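Inputs:
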Amino acid sequence: MDDNGTVQAVKARISKFRDERDWLKYDTPKNPAIAISIEAAELLEHFQWKTDEQISRFLRDETKMNEVSEELADVIIYCLGFSDVLHIDVSEAVERKLNKNREKYPTTKQQLAT
Amino acid sequence: MDDNGTVQAVKARISKFRDERDWLKYDTPKNPAIAISIEAAELLEHFQWKTDEQISRFLRDETKMNEVSEELADVIIYCLGFSDVLHIDVSEAVERKLNKNREKYPTTKQQLAT
Amino acid sequence: MDDNGTVQAVKARISKFRDERDWLKYDTPKNPAIAISIEAAELLEHFQWKTDEQISRFLRDETKMNEVSEELADVIIYCLGFSDVLHIDVSEAVERKLNKNREKYPTTKQQLAT
Amino acid sequence: MDDNGTVQAVKARISKFRDERDWLKYDTPKNPAIAISIEAAELLEHFQWKTDEQISRFLRDETKMNEVSEELADVIIYCLGFSDVLHIDVSEAVERKLNKNREKYPTTKQQLAT
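Outputs:
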């Protein structure tokens, strides 16, 4: 789905879910910013106390991998919900940030056109 | 761009930026999970100590709004970078999580087809 | 106990618990730094989506209050464990930071001697 | 100072600093809970992308070590400020949590009296 669905399509599904529950009123936007932090910590919790070797082993387990995907989905759901409330074009914001990082961390390697 | 670009296109731009700098080796994936948490906190910092009224006033300032967009971009860059390393289809993971949430938080409202 | 116990006494109880389980090896100190962040998010989770009114009502409930105290204890346990591993005198570090903040945020109010 | 100062003495210095600036009104307590999370992330940032070897080397640098101590102090300042607002006895909360953890993670090793 990442291959053929637009970012807007994902945002639309998230907004639809929210609006069906009349939850827009909670997106203050301080609340979703808090939610992003909390969900990010829940994602991080899966890797806590583990070495890189233990992590790569545990990611071969499909159940664990699904749990990690679900936590990542939570972070992204709140990020896209937040972007919707503030009318932020995520693709554009990412592009702008990557351009800024290109100046900060220049590469001497010949850059191929995308 | 969210309207016409796929999620995969955004992921590809992020992976290209990373590969041009040979940074894949840092995506352990414990490191990007840590990065997501740190960037989420930097986003939250913009709303810290502020009331909802102060926040809506401060978001009318274009400079502030750009700063917030940039912090959100950072969270998303690490989320998509993380998803790339672990081969997680973000659109699918979001869809699966929304379906799970639909069961957890049912709505009696008639649901419109998308 | 805060009234008559030293900070060192609390630190000693935490280190003793850790050493009885031979857990010092996990305090890398990257790991406890990660743990502090995760526990901080679990504390924050108790206030998520709630207004200040809802929070003050919910804190009148003793069970809820105990849960909040327990999450705060977790953050402090990892903070003091971290300080033990790095030989940081917490009282001194706090004093130094408050002095720095005093210069940053001067007060014109007459300051009473402690 | 950890050796001879009580936890209450540290809390009192933090509350005094706050009250001299009339900042109690901001301790809602949702705000300090948010602050704990943000400061925890700033502490974690010092260890970001670094291996354990790089971290132990960088902690031999006194300037770096002072920066880390300062970030830890920030987390603790907000934790103790939070505990003050909610009348939580930190030493007692830590003791209670350690006892709970003792049941969860029993040890067969003979336990020495403190």
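Remarks. The interface with chain B takes residues 34, 37, 41 of chain C (CB under 8 Å). The helical segments of chain C are 7-20, 30-45, 52-58, 62-85, 90-104.
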